[in-house]
């Protein structure tokens, strides 16, 4: 499978599920449009990343499935928190998340080569998944110590639930891997559905992944 993302977390999540990956990050403008809802934003950005990488593959396109994603954190008031631009921005974001529930939404876009010939338009689908996360109240000292560790700087909302940022988390509702950057269980089901709708899928992808033994070749 082609992963149109530079995120090492997404790569690890997919490899752990049994996929073999070719990493081809896309470079797009991630600016939010005026009035754009958080779920619309991530779906649009995931689709733009997928299209950018697909076009970079040249006339023949891809011979395997492609996946792109975008993750944001957003608050009850609809404020969107992307990756912090600097340490002060990270401190401001974490103060905002302190003691409250926020949402993490990942948009995912899947593309498949059309059956038979690569010159036909690819088939694609996109979806969003949202997880709610509740933080313990944080002191300014805790926030500053965490920001100084460097962990928040490349992560939406300025924390990593998979790292020491997990120590802020009082509760979570929804898929944990979605917070890390990719809702893998849903992705496999959506990819299965897309493979079936395109035709030519001989086997069930989920079944294939579940049947793998340690050391078996990767699934896609
Ligand atoms: C909330 C949260 C986000 N993140 C990460 C996932 C994403 O990598 C990042 C959000 O930025 P994204 O723009 O979604 O992704 P990216 O810039 O890392 O990679 P690319 O644009 O090439 O696809 O934040 C965590 O790792 N842990 C968390 O708990």
From TrEMBL:
<feature type="site" description="Important for substrate specificity">
    <location>
        <position position="9"/>
    </location>
</feature>
<feature type="site" description="Important for substrate specificity">
    <location>
        <position position="71"/>
    </location>
</feature>
<feature type="active site" description="Proton acceptor">
    <location>
        <position position="70"/>
    </location>
</feature>
<feature type="site" description="Important for substrate specificity">
    <location>
        <position position="162"/>
    </location>
</feature>
<dbReference type="Pfam" id="PF02545">
    <property type="entry name" value="Maf"/>
</dbReference>
<dbReference type="GO" id="GO:0016787">
    <property type="term" value="F:hydrolase activity"/>
</dbReference>
<keyword id="KW-0546">Nucleotide metabolism</keyword>
<protein>
    <recommendedName>
        <fullName>dTTP/UTP pyrophosphatase</fullName>
        <ecNumber>3.6.1.9</ecNumber>
    </recommendedName>
</protein>
<keyword id="KW-0378">Hydrolase</keyword>
<comment type="similarity">
    <text>Belongs to the Maf family. YhdE subfamily.</text>
</comment>
<comment type="function">
    <text>Nucleoside triphosphate pyrophosphatase that hydrolyzes dTTP and UTP. May have a dual role in cell division arrest and in preventing the incorporation of modified nucleotides into cellular nucleic acids.</text>
</comment>
<dbReference type="InterPro" id="IPR029001">
    <property type="entry name" value="ITPase-like_fam"/>
</dbReference>
<keyword id="KW-0963">Cytoplasm</keyword>
<dbReference type="InterPro" id="IPR003697">
    <property type="entry name" value="Maf-like"/>
</dbReference>
